[in-house]
């Protein structure tokens, strides 16, 4: 795995200085801009384009807390996260998922916009809590706990996308 932190000359930490990340991104993109390679060989132009794509990919990883956590875990353990792998050992969270899904389905069926706003705020709060928890787990190098929390964050992210879909649907009525 390429190390996006190294590419951006950033410490391998979950909490990132977003301003520094943006500054490094702009500097890298400026250095790799095609105009800088207009008089270069085709191979140098291709390498610059590949490096630019790497920079863009690395930025996406570093900006997304779930991908950033996956990256930190992989860099420290050598294990890649299998996002298709389902975590069924976390029965309490599995029950929570079912409850949230049922609640969201009920909100959609009854077209309860106020209920959706309340539910959305609850999920946003849960997301913030999990972000804080994963930050702690990663700083303590508790990779198993970090993986577990990141799985929860993945579910919450999907749920937030579903909330947005329902919000758009209800707004159209």
Describe the structure in your own words:
- By secondary structure, this protein is mainly α.
- 75% of the residues lie in helices and 0% in strands.
- 17% of the residues are buried.
- This is Co-chaperone protein HscB homolog.
- Co-chaperone involved in the maturation of iron-sulfur cluster-containing proteins. Seems to help targeting proteins to be folded toward HscA.
Task: Give structural attributes.
173 residues, mainly alpha, Monooxygenase, 2 domains, globular, HscB_C_sf, HscB, DnaJ_domain, chaperone
Helix count, DSSP H or I runs of 4 or more residues: 7
Low-confidence stretches: none
What is the number of strand segments?
A: 0
SSE run: HHHHHHH
Radius of gyration: 20 Å
CATH homologous superfamily assignment of the largest domain: HscB, C-terminal domain
* Helix share bin: over 70%
**Alpha-beta content class:** mainly alpha
Strand count, sense and closure of the main sheet?
A: none
At CATH's second level, what is the architecture of the largest domain? Up-down Bundle
Number of domains: 2
- The protein's oligomeric status is single chain
Can you tell me the CATH topology of the largest domain? Monooxygenase
What distance lies between the first and last C-alpha atoms, to the nearest angstrom? 47 Å
The coarse silhouette is globular
CATH class of the largest domain: Mainly Alpha
Estimate what percentage of residues fall within beta strands: under 5%
How confident is the prediction overall: mean pLDDT? 92
Keywords: Chaperone
Protein name: Co-chaperone protein HscB homolog
Family: Belongs to the HscB family.
Subunit structure: Interacts with HscA and stimulates its ATPase activity.
């Amino acid at each position: 795995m390429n190390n996006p932190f190294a590419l951006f000359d950033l410490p391998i930490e979950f909490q990132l200085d977003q301003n520094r990340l943006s500054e490094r991104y702009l500097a890298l993109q400026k250095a790799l801009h095609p105009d800088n390679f207009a008089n270069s060989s085709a191979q140098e132009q291709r390498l610059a384009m590949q490096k630019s794509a790497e920079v863009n990919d690395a930025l996406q990883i570093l900006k997304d807390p779930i991908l950033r956590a996956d990256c930190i875990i992989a860099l420290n353990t050598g294990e890649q996260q299998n996002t298709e792998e389902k975590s069924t050992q976390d029965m309490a969270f599995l029950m929570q998922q079912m409850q949230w899904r049922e609640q969201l389905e009920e909100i959609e069926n009854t077209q309860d916009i106020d209920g959706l706003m309340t539910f959305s705020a609850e999920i946003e709060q849960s997301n913030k809590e999990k972000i804080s928890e994963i930050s702690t787990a990663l700083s303590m190098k508790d990779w198993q706990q970090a993986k577990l929390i990141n799985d929860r964050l993945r579910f919450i992210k999907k749920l937030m996308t579903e909330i947005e879909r329902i919000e758009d649907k209800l707004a159209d009525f």
